[in-house]
Specification:
221 residues, alpha/beta, 7-stranded mixed beta sheet, 3-stranded antiparallel beta sheet, 30% helix
Amino acid sequence: MKGFNKWSIIKKQHFDTKIDEIPVTGRSINYYLKALFPDFKSKNDLVKYLKNKKYVDVGSGVNHMRNDSLLSILIKNNNDAYGIDIVKLPKHPNYKQKSIYDTTLKTNSIDFITINNLLYFHLYKKTNIINALKEMHRILKPNGEIRIFPIFFGEYYYGDIKLRDYINSLFFVRVIKPKPIPLENPIFYMDGEVVKSDSVGKGEIDIMKKLNSYILIMKKI
């Protein structure tokens, strides 16, 4: 289509949804299986795959407080697994209040990272992406992997060749389709306690469908 500019559509959609603050939520392993790991047949296969890997869920919200989340299941199985977010939450050995741009984690220390509904979604400017991926590359071990969802239209470099070349100099890149995202009630952290929501986040899922969302899989070079 002549004049079709995906970057403008993405930018306009974010402004239209008036995303000023990122809600502190938690998602189940079933949600992650569909949104980030559609190439795995089952939850057991995914947990087994991550068993001996040091795992970090960046922008994790309260996933460490949700019993059926991937992060909580890995923690219960004695995995070396952590959540990172900028929100101040009750002290927990597997949660770190840190920024995606400065995790303070050791260089070359992490095997696997997931980022759901944060980078490319709330943090969607090119400078956000460059600074975040620079830090993710630093903390990942060689051949360590990141999975990010959603990537609207699969456009991980927004048509910017310099941005594409920069990302491709850091990672081997693959883009895949998610499975249909399940409608589930998220949990929220509000006023010092975990609250179950009656909302299924349909508006959020509608945006993902409208903007043809993909999963970005990157392995550190």
